[in-house]
Amino acid sequence: MRNFYEILNVTENVTKEELKSSYKKMAKKYHPDLNPGDKEAEEKFKEINYAYEVLSDDEKRQIYDTYGEEGLKGNYSTSGGGFGGFSDIFDDIFDIFGSGGGFSSSSYKRSKNYPQKGTDINVEITLDFFEAVFGCQKEINVKVTDDCPRCHGQKAEPGTSKNTCDKCHGEGQIRVESASAFGRIVRTTICDKCHGSGEIIEKACTKCKGKGKILNSKKINVKIPAGVDNGNIVSLPNQGNSGDNGGGKGDIYVYIKVREDSIFKRRGNDLFIDMPITYSDAVLGGTIKVPTLKKIVDYDIPKATKGGTTFKIKGQGVPFVNKNIKGDLYFTVNILIPKKISEEERKILEKLRDNDTEIKHEQKNFFEKVKDFFE
């Protein structure tokens, strides 16, 4: 599996600023226009472009860090065609050549008619503690834009024509020259004939009003893997909003929130519980009952167990997502002191107190230390 951090020559704790800086250097080094005819450089540039597209996006980066490249399900284009979202970076890269260097950053900006992937949709769901631990199926309701079923996203009424704008040649923008005290100025502005669409439509579609899209409400079943926790994201590839000009659909990102449990406390993939035991079990030792996620198990505690002692049951914690391993279960014993005792129990305890030489010896040592502290 490819390591996107190594591809961009950065560490996994890289900041966005450091990531952008490294990307700019490598993109300049391997850009096809700076390496004409070099197929190896061209492929390297595609790989760099792909890695940066993932790591520069917080949602995609978290999915990659959690699930690896497999979690992305191949949704991001590695064709190297078009640089939408990167124009500011390429502006910086080619600024070093100056206006006379033969490069124009505008030539790298995306045309209005270039295929563009649809936007992503974010959804938040709340799971019960055990739903998160064992995994589950959840149904979500989302509003998604789809291609219009009448015009199939073409915006024009079926049977009518749609042509490339002859003024901007489909770019959606035109160059305007004007004179100033400093000489001629060339600026780019939205085409006034097609209003930036790059197209001339004879008659707009009657269903979508020329938008090419309609809004639908959908119910989608989401498979939640076992072991998810607060802040985890489940991705639904190609189920987001429809793209433009033949571009693919966006994705749906499901953000996970998990309710707390009254018994089990989770830290990572380990579980922690407070386990009440009797005074006699603490003194004499013995077998106690301990709850785990699936059943109650027997556990032998040693004699003379002190309150606050923590024990571990290996492999009884929460499963790691998409891995065949689990965390551990830790339980801390709390000794229960009865509020009411019988007369017989009181006599037994008094006898124990009078005859417990070990406890008295420890108490004596303690107060001798206190005395030394004040002297």
**What CATH first level of the domain at 114-147 and 213-259 would be assigned?**
Mainly Beta
Number of strands: 15
Number of helices: 9
Largest sheet descriptor: 4 strands, mixed
Share of β-strand residues = 25-35%
Taking all Cα atoms into account, the compactness measure Rg is: 34 Å
CATH topology of the domain at 114-147 and 213-259: HSP40/DNAj peptide-binding domain
CATH homology superfamily of the domain at 114-147 and 213-259: Urease metallochaperone UreE, N-terminal domain
Side by side, the strands of the main sheet go 10-11-15-14
Distance between the termini: 68 Å
Look at the structure and give the mean pLDDT.
83
What is the chain-wise order of helices and strands?
HHHHHEHEEEEEEEEEEHEEEEHH
Shape: elongated
Tell me roughly what share of residues is in helical segments: 25-40%
Query: Could you list the spans in which at least 5 consecutive residues all have pLDDT below 50?
Result: 74-85, 94-110
In the CATH classification, which architecture of the domain at 114-147 and 213-259 applies? Answer: Sandwich
SS-derived structural category? alpha+beta
Keywords: Chaperone, Cytoplasm, DNA replication, Metal-binding, Repeat, Stress response, Zinc, Zinc-finger
Family: Belongs to the DnaJ family.
Subcellular location: Cytoplasm
Subunit structure: Homodimer.
